[in-house]
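step=encode ok
step=design start
structure_in=
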């Protein structure tokens, strides 16, 4: 029951075995305020409380919650509810899908909580009308202005006006205004100045100079002395001279920081990057026993942030930390560098060693785990994945594997530097083998692209799903050979506003990762294009990044991919609007713009103790921004305590836009002396003049693949079909045949205004290999059922899955695998199971025997007398349910080690299994199965002992996490139900 005094709720807390009643504030938390605590509820009367927020058009998810998220209140615990104005809704306490406020017009809204009936509190939302007052003209009295028009997808014009107070001033003062609709409420202009302690750009083009100054200013907005997040330290500030993640994201997140550091923050503020990277490493908690099989128990681990299924190793892209670490190591000198070398080597070595145990598949040589940064399951995975996250955990992702490659390679280099050649050789061997595996297992020659991810266990093949970050990182790290790089850059689909982060798009899903441009991903695409000298892809990236910063007065978190807007309203289906959250001056977006200028236009490339300059100025870029300039300059750039002033001398004659290409580099000089290749650090003075003279245009005829569609258009040329589903219909017949029903859903059949997929074709897989390929399927506006007879081979693994492809070549995700195999299952009520904890009886919520909350430090469990009749490949999975947290968050994924012994007690196989959080359905806790470990065993009798490993709750820096695994101690527990033994392949 919810009870209130002033603006607080009462909560009973167990402190020192005494129940103490505490009071906590309630806040309106949602996409409009970064899910933060800027909007507390204030008392209107004895039982009514109110808060107010102003928003632009959009669909904004929200909840009523405490600062530490210990209590959350929503209208509908089962689905997102779009709130109607003026209607009273009863609230329920539940960590459930949020509610949503949809508005087609900007406005101010009040949220009123009513506690006249304390057991049924209610919420009413109303619109508030106020006079906004007269708008200021930021350009009044300015000496120079520039107006730039940007055409929209529907042939309208948005104008951006720039002005400067005094263009001759040492530090120019800029103003920037826009006619575009902004994502957040605020003035339609921004004012900012060049800063004395940071680099400046002078090109003769007011827009180009101003936008660089804007990005520098936004970097300083993100440079903070304290960070905070409601999930940590009870929402109170934590001291850290760090980079926070964005206007709406006040914490440090591993992947955001790492990519941003790599894109340029490490060069511009190396010490703050070091502080931030160190904040994302941790020792193990001293109050918790750590298993002997864990590597580096007395050292550091890189932190995998709270996430899918309980975090690591469901997600393993904590290794992206290495991208930022390498860039900052190249920006440090002397004792500061040496100190960070030791810190980085310790954290990286311990991390990659434990990832090798928990997330490496020796069968195909790849690492398991969720896609890097694409960490909202519904956005990029099959619709069924939320009901069984083990399949996401056992899948392999391109971006994450490239990050592992980067981490292993950097660890090898640091080992060499620290005079440990045996480790350098070991990790170099790992890295080389991983590069080979990525190219063998994930490269799809017919598409000219890498697969973004494979299906999970018992399927395993690469999917025809593609992401721009993974492709770009493969090019940047050298995993892709030059011919592959060119093919990728030409093949990856672009929209009229740039390259989306994934392709094809997911039907029936709002804009966030789906249907979106992310500037930092675009920046990696730009760097990949400049490395490969791919003019068309580079020009598209230049346009995307500049347009986004210009129209939105900030480097936004993300944009809808076909309109380029910071909020796209899907009027026919409001729930598909988005991006569902979008922050101004997002850290990696700011870094992306700085990277555009410093790394690509001015061409600065960093390596250990040396620099190289390879500016990539295309014909489009020269004509668009530098038409009147003889030279452009980047000045006051600090590098290891020295100052660099960089001048690029442009060709005197610029060709028209019809002749595409980029300008060659004729000469590079350092302080008047010609340089060939690299500039060694030792040759730099306190102040340095670097002059790059461009030569002739190198013509280019390359192109990108364009997808012409309108935003919000429900066309199968943009979207993938929904994945089919399989159902087993009959028992085994005499000839070993089973009948599968393949159900193909028309993804657009619910709306007559949508375009329907046609010419669908089915591919059926058995154990990851095709058994039926490209079988045509008729489809109507109703679900179409197709009966397929499949051969069942007794005694072997027989796991079936299916995909469909539409007439534009867009493939669905795989169906949920159906396994028709012979297997054993030893439940915990079986005599062959032993444990020091008691077995619970079935009940209405858990209709099976189980050991409740098994897996604490002193818990034991073993499965004995396991009979394997014939020599065979066998898979082992624990049956379990883990409800320590919701499926999208937390740090309490179950992570255990299975040790198999033969009749003599000899260890014959061992491995780590993952047991992610699961969803209850109508109060029922379903039985789930862990990720498998596989072994080739001769006939015999075996036993399996379940031992502890670790999860992210074991780390010291998660001690203040407010949910499971934090304040109350490390947790690696779940309800243990049994062991499944099945044929493998």
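sequence_out=
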């Amino acid at each position: 029951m919810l009870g209130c005094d002033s603006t607080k709720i009462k909560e009973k807390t167990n402190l020192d075995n005494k129940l103490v009643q505490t009071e906590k504030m309630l806040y309106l938390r949602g996409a409009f305020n970064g899910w933060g605590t800027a909007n507390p509820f204030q008392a209107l009367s004895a039982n009514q409380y109110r808060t107010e927020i102003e928003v632009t058009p959009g669909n904004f998810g929200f909840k009523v919650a405490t600062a530490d998220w210990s209590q959350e209140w929503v209208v509908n615990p089962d689905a997102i509810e779009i709130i109607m104005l003026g209607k009273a809704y009863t609230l329920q306490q539940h960590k459930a899908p949020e509610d949503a406020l949809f508005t087609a017009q900007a406005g101010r809204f009040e949220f009123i909580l009513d506690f006249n009936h304390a057991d049924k509190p209610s919420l009413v939302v109303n619109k508030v009308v106020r006079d906004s007052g007269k708008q200021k003209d930021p350009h009044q009295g300015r000496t120079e202005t520039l107006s730039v028009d940007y055409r929209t997808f529907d042939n309208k014009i948005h104008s951006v006006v720039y002005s400067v107070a005094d263009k001759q001033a040492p530090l120019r003062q800029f103003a920037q205004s826009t006619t575009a609709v902004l994502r957040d409420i605020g003035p339609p202009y921004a004012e900012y100045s060049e800063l004395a302690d940071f680099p400046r750009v002078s090109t003769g083009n007011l827009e180009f100079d101003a936008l660089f100054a804007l990005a520098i200013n936004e970097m300083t907005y993100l440079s903070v002395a304290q960070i905070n997040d409601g999930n940590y330290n009870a929402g109170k500030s934590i001291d850290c001279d760090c980079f926070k993640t964005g206007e709406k994201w006040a914490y440090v997140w591993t992947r955001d920081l790492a990519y941003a550091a790599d894109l340029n923050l490490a060069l511009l503020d190396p010490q703050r990057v070091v502080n931030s990277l160190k904040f994302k490493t941790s020792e193990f908690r001293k109050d918790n026993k750590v298993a002997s099989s864990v590597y580096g128990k007395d050292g550091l681990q890189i932190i995998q942030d709270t996430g899918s299924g309980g975090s690591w190793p469901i997600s393993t892209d904590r290794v992206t930390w290495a991208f930022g670490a390498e860039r900052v190591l190249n920006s440090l000198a002397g004792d500061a560098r040496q100190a960070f070398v030791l810190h980085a080597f310790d954290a990286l070595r311990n991390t990659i060693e434990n990832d090798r145990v928990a997330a490496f598949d020796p069968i195909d040589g790849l690492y398991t785990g969720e896609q890097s940064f694409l960490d909202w399951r519904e956005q990029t995975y099959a619709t069924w994945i939320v009901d069984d996250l083990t399949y996401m955990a056992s899948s392999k992702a391109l971006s994450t594997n490239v990050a592992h490659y980067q981490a292993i390679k950097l660890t090898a280099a640091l080992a060499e530097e620290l005079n440990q050649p045996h480790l350098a050789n070991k990790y170099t061997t790992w890295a080389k083998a991983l590069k080979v595996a990525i190219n063998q297992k994930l490269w799809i020659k017919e598409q000219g692209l890498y697969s973004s991810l494979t299906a999970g266990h018992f399927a395993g093949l690469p999917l025809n799903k593609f992401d721009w970050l993974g492709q770009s990182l493969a090019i940047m790290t050298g995993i892709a050979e030059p011919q592959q790089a060119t093919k990728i850059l030409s093949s990856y689909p672009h929209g009229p506003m740039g390259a989306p982060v994934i392709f094809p798009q997911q039907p029936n899903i709002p804009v966030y990762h789906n249907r979106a441009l992310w500037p930092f991903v675009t920046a990696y695409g730009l760097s990949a294009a400049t490395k490969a000298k791919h003019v068309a892809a580079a020009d598209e990236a230049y346009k995307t990044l500049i347009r986004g910063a210009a129209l939105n007065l900030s480097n936004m978190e993300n944009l809808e991919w076909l309109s380029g807007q910071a909020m796209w309203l899907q009027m026919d289906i409001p729930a598909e609007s988005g991006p569902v959250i979008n922050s101004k001056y997002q850290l990696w977006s700011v870094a992306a713009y700085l990277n555009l200028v410093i790394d690509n236009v001015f061409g600065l490339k960093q390596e250990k103790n040396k620099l190289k300059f390879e500016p990539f100025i295309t014909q489009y870029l020269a004509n668009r921004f530098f038409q009147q300039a003889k030279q452009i300059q980047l000045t006051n750039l600090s590098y290891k305590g020295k100052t660099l002033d960089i001048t690029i001398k442009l060709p005197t004659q610029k060709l028209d836009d019809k002749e595409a290409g980029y300008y060659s580099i004729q000469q590079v000089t350092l302080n008047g002396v010609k340089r060939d290749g690299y500039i060694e650090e030792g040759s730099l003075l306190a102040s340095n003049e670097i002059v790059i003279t461009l030569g002739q245009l190198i013509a280019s005829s390359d192109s990108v693949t364009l997808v012409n569609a309108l935003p919000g258009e429900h066309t199968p040329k943009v979207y993938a079909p929904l994945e089919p589903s399989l159902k087993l219909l009959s028992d085994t017949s005499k000839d070993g045949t089973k009948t599968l029903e393949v159900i193909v859903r028309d993804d657009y059949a619910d709306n007559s205004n949508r375009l329907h997929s046609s010419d669908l074709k089915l591919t059926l897989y058995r154990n990851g290999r095709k058994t039926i390929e490209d079988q045509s399927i008729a489809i109507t506006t109703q679900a179409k059922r197709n009966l397929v007879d499949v051969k069942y081979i007794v005694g072997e693994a027989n796991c079936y899955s299916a995909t469909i492809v539409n007439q534009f070549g867009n493939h669905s995700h795989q169906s949920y695998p159906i396994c028709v195999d012979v297997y054993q299952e030893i439940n915990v009520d079986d005599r062959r199971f032993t444990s020091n904890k008691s077995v619970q009886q079935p009940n209405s919520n858990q209709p099976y025997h189980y050991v409740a909350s098994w897996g604490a430090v002193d818990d034991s469990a073993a499965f004995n007398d396991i009979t394997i009749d014939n020599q065979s490949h066998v898979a082992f999975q624990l049956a379990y349910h883990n409800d320590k947290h919701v499926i999208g968050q937390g740090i309490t994924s179950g992570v255990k080690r299975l040790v198999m012994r033969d009749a003599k007690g000899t260890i014959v196989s061992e491995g780590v299994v993952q047991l992610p959080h699961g969803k209850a359905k109508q109060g029922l806790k379903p039985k789930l199965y862990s990720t498998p470990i596989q072994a080739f065993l001769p006939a015999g009798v075996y036993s399996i002992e379940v031992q502890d490993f670790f999860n992210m709750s074991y780390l010291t820096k998660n001690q203040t996490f407010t949910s499971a695994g934090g304040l109350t101690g490390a947790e690696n527990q779940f309800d243990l139900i049994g062991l499944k033994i099945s044929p493998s392949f």
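step=design ok
step=annotate ok -> The radius of gyration is 29 Å.
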